[in-house]
Amino acid sequence: MRFSVAFWHTFRGTGGDPFGAPTKMDIAPDGKTLEESNANLDEVVALAKELQGRKIRPLWGTAQLFMHPRYMHGAATSSELGVYAYGAAQVKKAIEVGGFYVLSQNMGVYARFLEAAVAYKKKIGFNVDYFVRYDWDAATSANFLRKYGLAGEFKLNIECNHATLSGHSCHHELETARINGLLGNIDANTGDPQIGWDTDQFLTDIGEATMVMLSVVRNGGLAPGGFNFDAKLRRESTDVEDLFIAHISGMDTLARGLRNVAKLIEDGSLDELVLKRYQSFDSELGALVEAGKADFELLEKKAMEWGEPKVPSAKQELAEMIFQSAL
């Protein structure tokens, strides 16, 4: 299990609103010009390389394209061409200093922006995965990537709290990304489903962690991605030790989730229930349906031949009991 921490809004957090004007780059301060900002970044990257020699490495990197006032109307989606170009220059520099990658989302010129990022990666031989962190849901993002021919170049960075905001569970979003071959990384946080904003809390719910890890196991892991603690302390947690408690708890919660998944797989009862639920498709007609070869005429003929279908119980309560018993 590969973990990373959010330096800028967790370890450097003040308890205030992070989305205001008095903000800087993640690891290097903004300069008065783009050239000065790039020079500042180069200087800090030199220190980062030194730290990597001590086995401290970034899980992925990102260009900060929303906090500065210039991005008030977006970056790759800005209506101002100068802002669009400035954002592209920041992304170019982020690619050059190395790491994995995350962007935002929209349409049209944004797709051209992503295409340019892919082209530059290939031009300089930067062999990494690109991650898109969506702002609605995984299905919308998958459709966007397919529409613009980018599905083979990008994977999704699923954020559990964003799943909450889109009206889905984190497991739903992970599975949607997984079955579309797009699951690349997880922002391991959670939110309050009763309110409508991004609370970015550390994950402590063992049940939710088990569902998260179930998707990860089904995906065959996340490498080269991992679990990024894109989470903040609660404002009343003011001691330095609270940072350590929160991250330790987050890692332990996911580890317990993984152990629970192992129990469920070894027991096999839950998988057996799912197989039984769909066993009617394990037939000649079912195979035709799944292959797209069963037309309405054939289905009507079978419906008349079989008469009123007998619908078996889905055993939902039994499934829930089996799941809860593993926690």
UniProtKB/TrEMBL annotation:
> Which UniProt keywords are given for this protein, alphabetically ordered?
Carbohydrate metabolism, Isomerase, Metal-binding, Xylose metabolism
Task: Please name the SUPFAM superfamilies in this protein's record.
Answer: Xylose isomerase-like
Please give one Gene Ontology molecular function term for this protein.
Answer: metal ion binding
User: What's its EC?
Assistant: 5.3.1.5
Which terms under GO biological process does the entry name?
Answer: D-xylose metabolic process
Q: Which reaction does it catalyse?
A: alpha-D-xylose = alpha-D-xylulofuranose
Q: Which PANTHER family match?
A: PTHR48408, XYLOSE ISOMERASE
> What family is it from?
Belongs to the xylose isomerase family.
Name-wise, this protein is Xylose isomerase
- List the source organism: Rhododendron williamsianum
